[in-house]
Amino acid sequence: MHDHSFLWGAATSSHQIEGNNIHNDWWAWEKHPGHRRSGAAADSWQRWREDVALTKTLGHNAHRLSLEWSRLEPAPNSWDTRATLHYQELLQAYRAAGMTTFVTLHHFTNPLWLSRLGGWEKAVALQHWLRYVRYCVTHFGDLVDFWVTVNEPTVYAGNGWLKKRWPPQKQSRWLVWQVLRHLAQAHSLAYSEIHRHLPLARVGAANHLIAFGDDRRRAFWFNHYFLRATRGTHDFLGVNYYFPAVQNWQGPNSDLGWPIYAAGLTEVLLEMKRYRVPIYITENGVADATDKLRPDFIRDHLRAVEEAQAQGADVRGYLHWSLLDNFEWDLGFEPRFGLVEVDYTTQKRTPRPSAYVYKAIIEQATR
Ligand code: BGC
């Protein structure tokens, strides 16, 4: 970590911060009675300049964000020039601030028209996806350092097609399998398409990894299935780590009741060594409204990264989830994941003490 090329920053996703993503499937789903609505979210679509400036103030040298497919392509093969310019300006601003950019192409949301065609349940999604990937490479290719094709395929498929938590709230083992298979194909297609245009591009995916301890069977399905299905098409691995799978947990919990266990990060990082490509932590964070837990959470998880490095894991960056408080999907705005607090009535941003703890760590490591 004391190597100067190590990347330090935070991550966000379009639907969770931008506000008014009226053309995607989540927006449609949020309108149902009893569902939380994203509304203006953190209003980053307007306040992005301030948000870029914040990452700089907080000492970051990298940032992960996602492109909102439904903004770029609100109707099939009809492209929005303003949205395209917006993302170009945004990515240029990160460049100008000296940040390395990680750009996610799919972070849970789909254009509404795609979901009406059956979304990821259907193979037809792949041809639309390919056209979208091509558009992104052509319009943003020179502004992206790391491409993250899809975010957390297992979480996405599990919540939408098994647990009935997220749209389309189905429960079918067959469909989970179809969705996962199509996302694996989508990743590999994107990998080749991006490389066809940009041979030196670095392309990967962000996987949600759980520390399963000795439960190798569950680790195999949850942590490794997607990676095995897409083997050979990862220039790097994106690791999202939040919690271990434990029963009767006695230790600390986040506001969401998730067990806090930093050693689990070492465990999953070591598990990734077998793929023999560089690893970036593309998400790691804690729901903690009062910021009581976050300072130690960050310190302990960074120590866990060092431990994994000492044992041979090639970890080259850490992106905290999240830069800002944001719309936590079906749970709404209550969970607070931000290094920076957002007051949703005024949209005022206030860095929490942990943001400065993180900044001091970065400064020390990069001195
Ligand atoms: C997702 C984020 C989410 C975070 C906290 C990850 O599963 O990629 O979108 O906000 O976890 O739950």
What descriptive keywords fit this protein?
globular, eight-stranded parallel beta barrel, binds beta-D-glucopyranose, 10 strands, 367 residues, alpha/beta, two-stranded antiparallel sheet
Name the ligand types. Answer: beta-D-glucopyranose
The SSE string, one letter per element, is EHHHEHHEHHEHHEHEHEHEEEH
The multimeric state of the shown protein is: single chain
Number of DSSP strands? 10
Strand adjacency order, main sheet: 1-2-3-4-5-6-7-8
Low-confidence stretches: none
Q: C-alpha Rg, in Å?
A: 19 Å
Q: How much helix is in the residues? A: 40-55%
Rough outline: globular
- Please tally the helical runs, counting DSSP H or I stretches of 4 or more residues: 13
Instruction: Describe the main β-sheet briefly.
Output: 8 strands, parallel, barrel
What's the end-to-end separation, in Å? 11 Å
What is the structural class?
A: alpha/beta
Strand content: 15-25%
Average of the residue pLDDT scores: 98
Describe the structure in your own words:
The protein has about 375 residues and is of the alpha/beta class. The protein contains 13 helices and ten strands. It has helices spanning about 15, 25-30, 45-55, 70, 80-95, 110-115, 125-140, 155-160, 175-195, 215-230, 265-270, 295-310, 355-365; strands spanning about 5-10, 60-65, 100-105, 145-150, 200-210, 235-245, 280-285, 315-320, 340-345, 350. An eight-stranded parallel barrel has the order 1-2-3-4-5-6-7-8, surrounded by six helices. It has a two-stranded antiparallel ribbon with strand order 9-10. The longest helix is centred in the middle third of the chain and has 25 residues, at about 175-195. The protein starts with 6 loop residues before the first strand and ends with a helix. The structure holds beta-D-glucopyranose (BGC).
